[in-house]
Description:
Blueprint: E1 8-13, H1 19-30, E2 33-36, H2 37-49, E3 61-62, E4 67-68, H3 71-80, H4 88-101, H5 108-121, E5 127-130, H6 136-148, E6 155-160, H7 163-171, E7 173-175, E8 182-184, H8 211-234, E9 239-243, H9 251-266
Parallel strand pairs: 1-5, 1-6, 2-5, 6-9
Antiparallel strand pairs: 3-4, 7-8
Helix pairs in contact: 1-9, 2-4, 2-5, 4-5, 5-6, 6-8, 7-8
Amino acid sequence: MNKADVKNIVVTGKSGAGKQPRIDVLVNEFGFQQLSTGNIFREFLGKFRGSGFKGDAKAFYDEAKGTFKPDKEIAAALKKAGVKGDTDPIVLGLKADFFVSSGKFVPDVITNELFASYFSRMGFKKAVLDGYPRTVEQAKYLLKMTKEKDTAIGFVVIVDNDDDAIIRRTIGRRICPKCSKVYHLEHKPPKDGKFCKDCGAEVVQRSDDTEEKIRSRLREFEDKCKPAIAVLEKAGIPVVKVPGNLPVFTDEAVRKSVMDAVAPIIQ
């Protein structure tokens, strides 16, 4: 296929493998937009939590059936409670919040709803999908949706890295709580070892950047993400690997490693 024929790209890999620099390359090279499930969840959760609704989301969920009440019924209740504006994203946020706030796994059906709503804003094209699909059911849903919307996934990029390197990299990661800039104590240290170079705030370690939690995420990739990738590959979508570690880590080295890997697909 020609470069211009690529409608969407999936980037996947183990948590901490180094996906973001590779996503940045693809966004710049193809003129696409990053579509991150993390950002999607934050947006919809923010819509709900900022709506002013003071009720309990549990009132809309049937534990016995494992389903929510119809969206129209939830929307009507929200409006009756004084929620203003478009209730569609607030209803989606309520569903996500129900699981997130109770520490439960967000079901694929809810994740798919959130993803589809956000993807539709982009016209189902020109997206670098980050963090989706993460399960077999999500992969099947993505294939079904792209077929229905007359779009496609051009190819999948797997950022490959070994577990020990990921653990070392992730444990040293620090985040600015104010501007979200990412640092590393060894490879990209903050000012004086603890202050953001951009805004001056003291950087922090994410609560889930411990070795135990990192190993749990690595197992999740093997158990859930790999089978999801296999579903896409079986459907005829090309899959390429790019190294998460490079002998020399520069912007140009990262760009070249990514574009060299996808060159056979887009020539």
